[in-house]
Amino acid sequence: MIRRASSIRTTSRLLASAPPRAALARSYATPSQEVDPQLEGYPQLPFIQRGTLPARGWDDMLERRNFGEPIHEQEELLSMWGPDVPVVEPRVAARHFLIAVTGFIAFGFTVKYALTQDPPVIRREYPYNGLIKELGGLEENKLG
């Protein structure tokens, strides 16, 4: 019993001294704020895409920036001409696409099998296995 209590205390001390799991996960997910040595004093600007900013209130409304404002080091990605920010998450967009494709396929099968009528005639039947001998055909080529 004493041994068990001491092991519980040791385990609880280890858990108390260890950093919380969420804090560790957050530290890896958060980009480091270290100064980039290649920038040589150039300001480190926030990574904000220009397409998410309001459209009015800029000196250059097309690029959504003010004159004299420093440009981000990755301006080609963040400018208005860079890749668009997806409005819908890719997983949700894929789900919507699959629902639409399934709907079109279901509609096609419904039209083909449920809404089309059988032809109003009976298929012609020939005697003697479809007149194979009379029409010069071979037994191997018969349709039946």
Layout of helices and strands:
Elements: H1 2-17, H2 21-29, H3 75-78, H4 90-115, H5 127-131
Describe the structure.
This protein is an all-alpha fold. The chain has a domain at 90-141. The chain has helices spanning 2-17, 21-29, 75-78, 90-115, 127-131. It is rod-shaped. It starts with a helix and ends in a 13-residue tail after the last helix. The mean pLDDT is 79. Keywords: Membrane, Transmembrane, Transmembrane helix. It holds the Pfam family NDUF_B8. The chain crosses the membrane at residues 93-115.
Compact overview of the structure:
Helices cover 42% and strands 0% of the residues. It has helices at 2-17, 21-29, 75-78, 90-115, 127-131.
Which range does the strand content fall in? under 5%
Q: Using the alpha-carbon principal axes, give the shape.
A: rod-shaped
How many helical elements? 5
Q: In this structure, how is the largest beta sheet organized? A: none
Helix content: 40-55%
Spatial extent as radius of gyration: 36 Å
Task: Please state the average pLDDT score.
Answer: 79
Total strand segments: 0
Which structural class matches the secondary elements?
mainly alpha
Distance from first to last alpha carbon: 87 Å
Order of helices and strands: HHHHH
Low-confidence stretches: none
Pfam families: NDUF_B8
Keywords: Membrane, Transmembrane, Transmembrane helix
